[in-house]
Recover the amino acids of this structure.
């Protein structure tokens, strides 16, 4: 699918920036993240199917912001931020097996979209069915990922209940 | 959805404003918007915000910056890893007939992890139904500091970390799904439902992330579906879900897919961890 960057940004840029602002709460970081999303879209545009992009860009923005939060390790300013920061750190690909060996880094323990699933469910309030539709998994698969993250976070209260 | 009882989330309003909600969902939300002034105010605020953002970050400037970063070497996005396997002194615990030694080098910027097989007798995975061409799955399990290639007799257990790879074998399109003894279905490839199902033809291709087995009983089954035309992922997921729920067939049955779809299956029996 050929991607017209200007048209795509005009249509979706504001939505992506609002998403990044909501998760990062920092204008400059949000603007950076917004550009990151579109840069990635351009780079992989040849692999996109011709369909509405809002859902994909929303997920890409969420993942990009989680990456920013992981690298920034900002001090949480409110309980919502703290949850987001915990999700970002716990769902970091390779976080469990970091640097034990080259094979350990090859075998990343946490699937890349676990953080996305957690944010969609816990932060955005999507139902398990809505999350499953978003990420192309079964509801039971989504539950499984949330249980996995739950155990990583070490919380007594189940995330997936 | 019941907007009267549950606040309409922001993501839903965004898609409604963009006209990208499914028709039935959009009609339901349109009804709620007509009845609720607060929803109309939120939509108006989003429209105002659109204008403000495009004024603060104009299309021409942002578009140019995005194109420049996409074309240049200094893009800031998180690196993806591309794994090249070559000769080194680091041995993996693979069967004797396929003993390979590898050197792994991570390159940023590439999305799809790929692997060049360096042995002519690289392990072929036991598979079952509707064999067409040479497309197949390869599963590796992390064992300490090594990785072993699994064959069709392999048994696995909770906590095992698996790396899935595929070989397209000339088939142009594909999808990889798995399900377990509890009926949980996971789409492994493509990693995004909106990304097309084009397969890489570069030999053995690793999926970007590994998969850790949980305590689901009996088995974990991976299936590679291939075709010469794009795969209908909705259909595949519906049929996978149906088969996974059929306890008598889930481990051995064939997905009810069109004849031009080939399927290769890899069944891992589960053993309880001692």
């Amino acid at each position: 699918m050929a991607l017209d960057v200007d048209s795509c940004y005009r249509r979706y840029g504001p939505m992506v920036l609002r998403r990044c602002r909501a998760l990062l709460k920092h204008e400059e970081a949000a603007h950076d993240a917004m550009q990151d999303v579109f840069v990635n879209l351009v780079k992989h545009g040849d692999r996109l199917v011709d369909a509405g992009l809002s859902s994909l860009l929303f997920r890409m923005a969420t993942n990009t912001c989680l990456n920013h939060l992981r690298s920034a390790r900002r001090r949480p300013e409110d309980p919502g931020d703290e949850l987001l920061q915990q999700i970002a750190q716990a769902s970091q690909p390779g976080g469990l097996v970091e640097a034990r060996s080259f094979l350990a880094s090859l075998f990343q323990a946490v699937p890349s979209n676990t953080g996305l699933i957690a944010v969609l469910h816990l932060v955005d309030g999507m139902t398990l069915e809505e999350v499953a539709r978003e990420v192309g998994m079964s509801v039971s698969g989504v539950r499984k990922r949330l249980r996995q993250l739950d155990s990583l976070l070490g919380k007594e209260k189940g995330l997936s209940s | 959805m019941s907007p009267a009882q549950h606040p309409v989330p922001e993501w839903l309003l965004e898609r409604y404003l963009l006209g990208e909600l499914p028709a039935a969902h959009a009609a339901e939300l349109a009804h709620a918007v007509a009845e609720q002034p607060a929803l109309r105010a939120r939509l108006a605020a989003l429209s105002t915000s659109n204008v403000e953002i495009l004024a603060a970050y104009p299309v021409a400037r942002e578009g140019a910056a995005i194109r420049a970063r996409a074309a240049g070497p200094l893009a800031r996005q998180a690196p993806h890893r591309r794994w090249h396997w070559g000769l080194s002194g680091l041995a993996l615990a693979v069967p004797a007939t396929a003993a390979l030694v590898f050197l792994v080098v991570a390159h940023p910027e590439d999305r799809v992890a790929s692997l060049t097989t360096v042995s002519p007798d690289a392990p072929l995975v036991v598979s079952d139904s509707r064999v067409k061409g040479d497309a197949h799955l390869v599963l590796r399990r992390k064992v300490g500091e090594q990785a072993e290639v699994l064959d069709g007799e392999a048994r696995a257990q909770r906590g095992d970390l698996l790396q899935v790879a595929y070989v397209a074998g000339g088939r142009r399109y594909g999808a990889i799904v798995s399900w377990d003894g509890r009926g949980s279905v996971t789409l492994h490839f493509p990693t995004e439902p909106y990304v097309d199902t084009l397969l890489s033809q570069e030999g053995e291709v690793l999926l970007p992330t590994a998969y850790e087995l949980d305590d689901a009983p009996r088995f974990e089954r991976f299936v590679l579906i291939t075709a010469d035309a794009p795969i209908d992922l909705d259909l595949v997921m519906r049929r996978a879900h149906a088969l996974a729920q059929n306890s008598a067939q889930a481990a051995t049955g064939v997905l009810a897919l069109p004849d031009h779809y080939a399927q290769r299956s890899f069944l891992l029996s589960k053993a309880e961890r001692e």
Notes: Chain A touches chain B through 67 residues (CB under 8 Å). Residues 1-74 of chain A form a domain with the Rna Polymerase Sigma Factor; Chain: A fold (CATH 1.10.1740.10).
